[in-house]
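Dear Dr. V.,

Thank you for agreeing to look over these. As mentioned in my earlier message, I'm a first-year student in the group and I'm still getting used to reading structure tokens, so any feedback on how I've presented them would be very welcome. I ran two proteins. I've put each sequence directly above its structure. The first is here:
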Amino acid sequence: MLRPKIPTMPTPTGLVSPPAVIEPTTVVQHHPAPAPAPAAQVPSRPTVHLTPGAVLALVGGGTAVVLVVGAVLVSMLLAVAVTGASVAVCAVVIRSLITSQHRR
């Protein structure tokens, strides 16, 4: 009923060329060129210039990220608490139903 389909290897449709023949070549050694004179020293670490607007944008962005992450975490905690409370209410109702049946 359910049989896997095995892919078939397609046949080549175009002309197949024979592999290229690689002929050995001679190795010519060149003398290395003299090294150029060293340039002026470049500082290893680039300096970062923050304008007051950039600092304000960074602080605002960080605050927004913290608020969003906090809202997500609080909503997840609230979802867990509501689920736990509903399971507890269901357990109490089921327990009372079972005990009322045993009394009759």
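The second protein is here, in the same arrangement:
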Amino acid sequence: MRLTDFWQRMAEHFGGAYADSFARDHVMSELGGRTVHEALAAGCDAKEIWRAVCVTMDVPGHLR
């Protein structure tokens, strides 16, 4: 998954303004105790991060 696709999905689910806030502030155990931004900076695959967000935040199937 390209980063542009990842951020588009984040914006679709959370809204444009909250997507970045969530990615910066919400620590997820599925990401090894990191935020989305930290996981991306560590080189984690955007698709795996999106899957973690989907599980953590119960993202509806049509957005997965």
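From my reading of the second output: Residues 35 and 41 are 10 Å apart (CA to CA). The mean pLDDT is 94. Does that match how you would interpret it?

Kind regards,
E.
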